[in-house]
Every structure is written in C-alpha cells, then in structure tokens.
Design goal:
10-stranded mixed sheet; alpha/beta; 2 domains; 30 strands; Rossmann fold
Length: 630
C-alpha cells in the first residue's frame, strides 16, 4: 500500500560509489588536477599524496596514505604520474598501468629509464594517468607468494577512492587513490618472471582478476593447479599452450581469426572477451606494448556495480566503496586530443552563454560537453536527421565520466547521434532555473548543429541526473520525444507541472535495480518503494492512462501486470527485466526497467537499454503528437 499517494518526494540519491569533494559546488568547474609529471618511489608517494589530495576541491579535511601500505617493502615499487591528472569528481578517469618486472634497479633514474625504453611514459602522458613499476620484494629470489600480499595492498590503496577512517568524530581520507590510482581503467603488463607471478597469484584470484580490464604477458608460465579465475582479456606472447587454454576457458572463446602477427580467440557474443596469441622469438617489448595499448587496453574498461565485499571476506580492508568483484567488463572509448574512436569529437565549453538564467546564489549553466560525430562536422548528413541525447550526470559526478561509464559514448560511436552533457550540480536546488537552463541548452544545440532532428530530442540521467530529467520532462515536455529516468532523485510534482501534460504525452521509462537506494527500492525484498510507485503512476496520469493498483504478492518486484515484458541477460552477467504499460492505442508509453544484483551505480549497459526505448519515439513538430516506431 502507498503511504503517501498524493505526492512524490524521491530522496536525493547521490551515487554512493563516487568520490567527490565536499563543500559548495560553484562556477568554473574543473575536473583536472593541474599537477606536474612526477616519478617517485611508492614510499615517496605516501609522503606527497596527502598534501596533493588536500589541495583538490575545497582543500578541507584530513588526508593520509592508506594504512594497508604500512610495511610495504621499500625500494621495490615506482610510480610515474602524468601531468594534469583527472581530479575532483573525475578522479576515477585516470588510466593505470601496472608493470611487473623481475629485476631490481640501482636507483630511480634506472627505473624511469626502463619505463621510457618500454614506451610507457609516452603512452601514459597521452592517456593521462599513472604507470606503477613493481619489482620483487626479494630481488635474489624473484617474485614469490609473499608478493601477493603486496599486490593486495597496492590494489586496495589504488582503488579506495574516497576511502576513509574515523576517529573521535574526525574523518581522515586516504589519499593514494586520488594521487595515482583509480578503478576502471586498470591494466597489467607482466614480463618473464613478472608474467608468471601474475598468472599464479593474481589471475588465479577472483578478487584480483575481476577488476583488471586487460593484460599483456610476455614469456609467461602457470602452475598446473592454477586457473584464470574469471573473464580477463589477455595478449599472450610466447605463453605455454596450457596458459593459452586457461585464458581461453576463462573468456569463453568460441571463434578465431588471425593475421600475420597473431591469432585472436574471442567470444562471438561478447568480443571484448578475447585472447590474442603471439609467438615471436625475440619480441620487441616496446612495440608490443604500444600495439596492445592501442588495440586492447584502450578499448576495454571495468565498472564496479555489485555489492561490496562479496569476494573479499577475511581481508583487512574488506567492504570499502570499490571493494567489488567482478567489475563489469565494457567497451571503452579513449578521447585523445579531443577525438574518440570512429570520429566522435568532444568539445568542452565553459562560457557565459546562459548566464541570464541564474539561481539566487548566482549559479548558472556554465560548463557542458558536446559529443559530435565527424560526419556531422563535415556536413555529410542531411539537416534534421541526427538524434540528440541530453545526458545528465548524478550528484557529485563528472559529466564526462558519466557519459563514458553509463555507456552513452559507446552508443554514440555505434549509432552516430549527438550528445550534450551539462555540468549541473549547483543548479539542482533551483529546479525552475535548471529546467529553463536545460531547455536553453537543447535549443542552442539545435541551432548550432542543423543536423539535429528536433523530433528526436531525448533526455536521460542517473540519480540526481534522473531528477534533472524529470525537471526537464515536466517543464518542457513538448521539447522531448521520450525520457529515461535512471534511479531517480529528489523531486516533487506540482499542479503546474501536471498542467503541462493536458495536451502533451511523453513516453517514460524508469530504470532501477535490486540494490538501488532505499528511496527507490525496498531493501528487504527488492520491490518498488512507495516513491517509485507514485512516480510510475504520475507518468501514467500524464499520459492519460489508468493508474496502477500495486499487488506485490502476485507480482513480487514490479507489483503490476504488464501489457508486455522481456527478460534479458546483460553482458552474460545480470538479468534485466522490462515491464511495459500500453495506452489505448497499444503504445508502451510507460515502462519499468529492473536489473538484478546491481547496486546504485553506473552500469555501461544502461545507455543501450535507454537508447532502445527512447528511439522508438519521435514527436511531430507541427502537432506535438508522439509517433511510435517500434
């Protein structure tokens, strides 16, 4: 039963798995650190990182290096940080490459020369991020079981973005993740004994393997008793046949293709799950690394979306924000010099174009990012033929990181539409200003790019961005052809908003998940909360459709009998359900999307789900009527 059927207040749903700076968000948004390139031993980073972390954002708070690194063997690990790292709300966007080399270095200069010889400094200076060079704790013995403990410490420190501890009501945040870490773009290179160590102690441990987006292993072996613990894309150079077989099994490869350089075994349904086999008697390590970065590492990422601590029970720092395994493997689209793969150009804007639309505090929409296919820029498409997606980030999130991690950039690469992603954090508290700003942004985009089809303008956002989607939908519904609210946010419907729909319909999908935040989902059974029930009923009302009388005994998750429904296994990992409610003409004007297992977090499959629903609809610009194109 509904406890509050007359109004809807969805609690502010900040993405819990994000690290963000405290204090007020204001104009002149920046998602970079502005640092100079540095090369340090790991112990030197522990001294440098607290002050660097404190200088980001508001600069308030106490910081220290993660205590998991206490006792880490000195003089064994080196960290190169490229200039102007991603920072603040985008700190997780840094690329991180771990290199296991079974050798020791007399000094830092020798270690840096090794990375330069391998071409890794040039790669990371372009990619933006860190290279971590790891050598054995006992140089004479080489890598051994004891080094697995050190890998756990390094992984924990690098991935604990926003991790903290509290003593006497004072919170202290761990600084290593901000300084040289990150979780989504993590790759490994193993050479000789370093490659064999990786196989035996990292690839064979599910909690480790499930967080790595790709590996390059040169001259690796693997103990017979070991196996690759989970999906892990790999480029294998001179590996044994047994090692090759174990990686093929883990990636569920079922097809093969080859060229003069290598043979690729891959999964036909999920081609990111691949094993590339290369046999060269004298491999050029630098050339191989460049090739593998370009062809594998830069095309895959991992995103954490399941409950914390599922596979790390008994470890000393179990249960922090990103202590999840496996991370979901997804396509990555690296933006280099303003261009993503397949010619999607990214244009950052920070200007006063919309400064006349202000909050009482003087905030306005100042920063946004445009993603435009090359054929649009080259005038190779007819006017009025390209859809526009307004992509709205969640609370404390970064627009660019959101577009990448929720899957919108990959969808634009495939489907060739335009995205605009505004930075709207400071506007959410003033929803009339937010709605007017988003409408002005959409109008600006249509004027700037005549290729945009005004009948196919869509809005979709996650968490707070879902709330921003509702703001635009209820303020300027006729401007949009359909909307998808991903995981909702604080929102109150008003009579004025309802009046907007007297002569206007608007297709609406609500997307949630089994472990979404409590305002959206009842935590005890994963069913729709009161707030989510009201949300669906409001859009049924807006679309002149019958309200739902919820019955969770008969329909345990959604609470209603749908007119149509589907069940899909996403990415070979999570079940997804869609329940459709049709109007009198049989058009699915309201839909509910629900994914099992997932917490409140960005999932790279969400954009495809949203795109498949949104693009069934267009709006007649003369009559305002919705056209359904199933």
């Amino acid at each position: 039963m509904l406890k509050n059927p007359s109004s809807l207040v969805l609690a502010l749903a900040l993405i819990l798995s994000l690290s963000f700076t405290s204090g007020a968000f204001a104009l002149n948004y920046s998602n970079r650190q502005g640092n100079k390139a540095t090369f340090e031993t790991l112990e030197e980073t522990r001294v440098s990182s607290p002050a660097a972390a404190a200088s980001q954002g508001s600069g308030k708070g106490t910081f220290k290096s993660h205590p998991v690194l206490d006792g880490y063997p000195k003089g064994t690990t080196y960290v190169y940080r490229s200039a102007n790292l991603w920072g603040g709300r985008a700190n997780r966007s840094n690329t991180n490459i771990l290199v296991f080399a079974e050798k020791s270095f007399q000094n830092k200069d020798a270690a840096l020369a090794c990375l330069k010889d391998l071409g890794l400094i040039n790669i990371i200076d372009t990619a933006i991020g860190s290279v971590v060079l790891i050598t054995p704790s006992d140089p004479k013995a080489g890598f051994a079981a004891a080094d697995q403990k050190h890998y756990y410490a390094l992984q924990t420190a690098m991935l604990s973005l926003g991790g903290s501890e509290r003593s006497n009501n004072v919170a202290t945040t761990y600084s290593d993740g901000d300084y040289f870490g990150g979780f989504g773009f993590l790759y490994v290179i193993g050479i000789d004994g370093g490659a064999t160590f990786f196989n035996n102690y990292i690839a064979s441990t599910f909690d480790y393997a499930g967080r790595i987006a790709g590996v390059l292993l040169i001259n690796s072996r693997m103990d017979e008793v070991r196996k690759v613990a989970g999906v892990l894309p790999a480029y294998l150079v001179n590996a044994t046949e047994a090692v090759e077989a174990k990686y093929k099994a883990a990636n569920k490869t079922d097809a093969v293709k080859g060229d003069a350089r290598a043979t690729t075994y891959f999964n036909q349904t999920l081609p990111l799950q691949q094993v590339i086999v290369n046999r060269e008697s004298n491999p050029d390590a630098a050339a191989l690394i460049k090739r593998v970065y370009d062809e594998m590492f830069s095309r895959a990422m991992r995103v954490p979306v399941v409950k914390q601590g599922l596979h790390s029970a008994g470890t000393p720092y179990q249960g922090y924000n990103f202590d999840q395994a496996p991370y979901s493997l997804a396509a990555r689209n690296v933006v280099t010099n303003g261009v993503a793969p397949d010619g999607i150009s990214v244009f950052p804007h920070q200007e006063d174009r919309f400064s006349s639309i202000k909050t009482k505090a003087g905030e306005y929409l100042q920063t946004w990012y445009e993603y435009v296919p090359g054929e649009v820029l080259q005038n190779r498409v007819a006017p009025g033929t390209v859809p526009l997606v307004i992509a709205l980030h969640g609370g404390g999130d970064d627009p660019q990181a959101f577009v990448e991690e929720v899957g919108w950039l990959e969808m634009a690469r495939q489907k060739r539409f335009i995205i605009v992603a505004p930075e709207h954090q400071s506007l959410y508290s003033d929803q009339p200003v937010l709605g007017e700003s988003l409408a002005a942004l959409a109008a600006y985009m249509m004027k700037t790019y005549p290729a945009i089809d005004a009948s196919r303008v869509y809005a979709s956002g996650y968490s707070m961005g879902g709330g921003a989607t509702l703001v635009m939908a209820t303020s300027y519904p006729r401007m949009l052809a359909a909307v998808v609210d991903m995981a909702g946010a604080m929102f109150t419907f008003t009579d004025k908003m309802q009046a907007q729909f007297k002569e206007t319909d608007l297709p609406f999908m609500y997307l949630t998940s089994a472990y979404d935040l409590q305002p959206n989902i009842n935590p005890e059974d994963g069913s729709l909360s009161d707030n989510s029930q009201v949300l669906l009923n409001k859009f049924l009302l807006f679309n002149k459709m019958n309200q739902i009388r919820y019955d969770f005994r008969t329909h345990p998750k959604c609470g209603f009998q749908a007119d149509a429904w589907s069940e899909t296994l996403l990415n070979d990992e999570h079940k997804n359900f869609i329940w459709y409610l049709n109007n009198k003409q049989g058009v699915p004007m309201v839909a509910l999307n629900y994914t099992a297992d997932l917490i409140h977090a960005l999932y790279p499959q969400y954009a495809r789900i949203a795109w498949d629903y949104l693009t069934q609809f267009s709006r007649n610009q003369k009559t305002g009527a919705i056209k359904y194109n199933p």
